[in-house]
């Protein structure tokens, strides 16, 4: 092993809390690789039952390899390309949601190359060459944020799980470090098999029929159109009303074998599963109105509300999906709104506009008020009624009106 690579691996060897080893510590190259691998494998398997999934592993490998950012994404190629779930650490605020929302994630060179290469992808863009310009083939969007994030090289490993879904891990090396060396790529290669096993265990845990049992029995008796999804984007259970609303409007069907919803509107289906992934990964903070979608029907569109819920018993997060049908909802009066929430007459009028699906600008136009006044009214309503988000307030009113 070249002396430079040996020194780099010694530098990369970290204790679990992320601090570098002392520069005076003597450690042979084989022992160094073994220590690094042991630390990473330990953190990898410890994530299988953790409520944050593989977030802690990604944080550990970021510190170990001196990365700017890294991610683990599970992607389905057939019958439609879509992201299912994953984790990301170190990306600029809003980049991951934006890339998922716009489909740019599938145009990312590392992910696209991994999907094209197949289940045994293992590569770095610089391929050990410090003079390599790996940005040359990047699309404009990728080049912009990569330069802003200060990335000098990107390494990727990929494989397929037992469900024929593609798992891609991307590691972005920050400037000030070197490009990925051959010893580092060899270490990632050894880590790959452990990642396959750990993710298989994670999938088994969250696909378990036993773990769904309590939720299934609870959802089955609800009269509201409600469904619950697991941390791996699987449909845990759907209430009879949820199934019925899909049948009534011919908007979607449920595949009980794959535990997926097939929407008639394929673009909506893509948007829905993208939003689901964002909530599972906790990457919704940078998006506006990211928890509400509108499903077009031959009548008025259905409002689809997505809410994360923490399951204390299983120590993981599920996602609750509710459908509100304005075609059967009675529009309340101003007086009725003021009976169920604390609101002035002006604030109740704003609520009424929001219930009809108008946005802030449209409400301002209808009520002949300034947009700033509408926002002030909404802020006051949230504070007085102990709601953190606008969608929670509207969902509360829609439940009462249904």
Name some characteristics of this structure:
alpha+beta, 3 domains, Beta-Lactamase, 15 helices, Arc Repressor Mutant, subunit A, disordered N terminus, about 400 residues, five-stranded antiparallel beta sheet
Share of helix, binned: 40-55%
Determine the structural class based on helices, strands and strand pairing: alpha+beta
Number of beta strands:
12
Strand content: 15-25%
CATH C-level label of the largest domain: Alpha Beta
Secondary structure blueprint with pairings:
Elements (H helix, E strand, L loop, with lengths): L2 H10 L16 H18 L8 H10 L2 E10 L5 E8 L5 H8 L6 H9 L4 E3 L15 H10 L1 E10 L5 E9 L7 H26 L1 H12 L5 E4 L5 E4 L1 H9 L3 E4 L4 E4 L2 H16 L10 E4 L6 E10 L4 E9 L9 H7 L4 H11 L4 H8 L3 H14 L5 H12 L1
Antiparallel strand pairs: 1-2, 1-5, 3-4, 4-5, 6-7, 6-12, 8-9, 10-11, 11-12
Helix pairs in contact: 1-2, 2-3, 2-7, 11-12, 12-13, 12-14, 13-14
């Amino acid at each position: 092993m070249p002396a430079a690579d040996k020194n780099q691996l010694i530098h990369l060897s970290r204790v679990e809390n992320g601090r570098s080893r002392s520069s005076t510590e003597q450690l042979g190259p084989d022992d160094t690789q073994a220590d690094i691998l042991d630390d990473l494998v330990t953190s990898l398997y410890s994530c299988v039952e953790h409520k944050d999934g593989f977030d802690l592993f990604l944080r550990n490998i970021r510190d170990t390899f001196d990365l700017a950012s890294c991610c683990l994404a599970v992607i389905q190629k057939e019958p439609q390309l879509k992201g299912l779930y994953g984790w990301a650490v170190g990306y600029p605020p809003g980049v991951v949601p934006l890339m998922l929302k716009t489909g740019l994630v599938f145009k990312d060179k590392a992910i696209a190359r991994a999907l094209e290469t197949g289940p045994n992808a293992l590569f770095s863009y610089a391929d050990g060459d410090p003079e390599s310009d790996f940005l040359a083939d990047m699309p404009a969007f990728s080049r912009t944020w990569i330069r802003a994030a200060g990335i000098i090289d990107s390494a990727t490993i990929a494989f397929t799980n037992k469900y024929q879904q593609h798992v891609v891990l991307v590691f972005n090396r920050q400037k000030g470090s070197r490009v990925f060396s051959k010893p580092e790529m060899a270490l990632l290669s050894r880590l790959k098999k452990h990642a396959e096993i750990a993710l298989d265990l994670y999938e088994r845990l969250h696909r378990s029929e036993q773990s769904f049992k309590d939720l299934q029995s609870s959802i089955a008796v609800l009269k509201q159109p409600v469904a619950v999804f697991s941390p791996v984007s699987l449909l845990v259970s759907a209430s009879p009303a949820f199934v019925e609303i899909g049948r009534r409007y011919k908007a979607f069907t449920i595949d009980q074998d794959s535990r997926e919803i097939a929407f008639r509107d394929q673009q909506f289906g893509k948007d829905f599963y993208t939003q689901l992934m964002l909530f599972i990964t906790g990457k919704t903070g940078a998006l506006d109105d990211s928890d509400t979608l509108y499903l077009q029907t031959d009548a008025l569109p259905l409002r689809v509300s997505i809410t994360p819920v923490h399951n204390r018993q299983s120590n993981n997060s599920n996602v609750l999906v509710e459908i509100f049908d304005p075609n059967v909802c009675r529009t309340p009066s101003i007086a009725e709104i003021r009976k169920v929430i604390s609101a002035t007459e002006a604030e109740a009028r704003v609520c009424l506009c929001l219930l009809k699906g108008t946005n802030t600008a449209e409400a301002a136009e209808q009520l002949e008020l300034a947009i700033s006044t509408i926002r002030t009214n909404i802020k006051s309503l949230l504070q007085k009624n102990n709601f953190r988000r606008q969608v929670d307030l509207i969902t509360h009113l829609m439940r009462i009106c249904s």
